Amino acid sequence: MKKLKKSKQNSKDVNKSSIDNVFEKHRFQIKLNKYNKNKLKVFTLGIVSSLFFIVCIYFLLPISNIKGYSINGNYFIDENYILKKAGISENSKYLLIFNSLIENKIKEIELVDDVTIEITNDKIVNITITEKLVVGYRFDEKFPQIVVADGSLIEIQDYYTNIISKVPLIVDFKDDIVRFAQSFVNVEQNMIESISEIQRYEYTFDPNGIQCFMKDGNRLFMSYYSADLLNKYNGISSANETENACIYIDEYSKNAYTSLCPEQQAALDKELEDDLLDEDGEKKDENGGEKDEENDEKE
């Protein structure tokens, strides 16, 4: 009987020991998994830290900088302002330059029509600017403005270099400035710069007249619809032998001809009118007034 109890006790101890072993193995496996996970984390953190350290060292070295930059196509916009707007300098990091980001920043300049960024393999940043066509400038009630061929008006800023000395002063056209500006959309920029001042000149038959004071001393009269013929002005002026001439462009035939200037024509008309009046301001007859005197004598 004692032996039976002892065997039962031994059986219980064996079962208990087996259960303990299972739990012990399970706890060991959990610890092992945690250790492996921690080991992987430490290994990953080590790699990330090493890469971060290498990147930091790289960006601290001059080798990470761009080797240079170039700006092309800017005529009115100051180069230094473009670089400032783009955030580019000799210390700019090659890997931190993103074309689309720089393009969007430069396009914030109102006179920029388009821009392209190219980064060469030798770390040179090439910026190509396309500026809007500038017709001239005018003085508004508040501030001077650039008149653009698309009809927009841009306030003159310091970074628009020498723009007043390059393009013509525009007088009048206050209520029609957009249509006036758009009539120059096909005129070349260098031909616009051959004009010193543009004024409205209304013909009796055409309210859309333009008078251009050219830098060579001539005056050019035309309409909105013939403004593109300014591109042929050099040929027109070279065919004219008269200095300080008034040149007229016919809107329909598109032909240019030289004639009296408006003030000369007005003076001539006044002189002719005076010749047709007597001393009392009355109109003479065809015989200069003698006919009336003869009639009086006969009576």
Question: What does the model show?
Answer:
It is built from 9 helices and 12 strands. It is α/β, with parallel strands linked by helices. It has 3 domains: about 70 residues, Roll (Ubiquitin-like (UB roll)), CATH 3.10.20.310; about 130 residues, Rossmann fold, CATH 3.40.50; about 30 residues, no CATH class. The strands form 3 sheets. It has a 6-stranded mixed β-sheet, with no helix packed on it. Strands 1-3-2 form a 3-stranded mixed β-sheet. The chain is rod-shaped, with a radius of gyration of 44 Å. The N and C termini lie far apart (about 190 Å).
Kindly report the oligomeric state of this protein. Answer: single chain
Shape: rod-shaped
Count the E strands. 12
The tally of structural domains comes to 3
* End-to-end Cα distance: 188 Å
Which CATH-level-2 architecture of the largest domain? Answer: 3-Layer(aba) Sandwich
Percentage of residues in helical conformation: 25-40%
In short:
The chain is an alpha/beta fold and 299 residues long. The chain contains nine helices and twelve strands.
List the SSEs and their pairings.
Layout: H1 2-60, E1 68-72, H2 79-86, H3 99-106, E2 112-119, E3 124-131, E4 134-139, E5 144-148, E6 153-155, H4 163-166, E7 169-170, H5 177-182, H6 189-192, E8 195-200, E9 209-214, E10 219-223, H7 233-238, E11 246-249, E12 256-259, H8 262-275, H9 290-298
Parallel strand pairs: 1-3, 7-8, 10-11
Antiparallel strand pairs: 2-3, 4-5, 5-6, 8-9, 9-10, 11-12
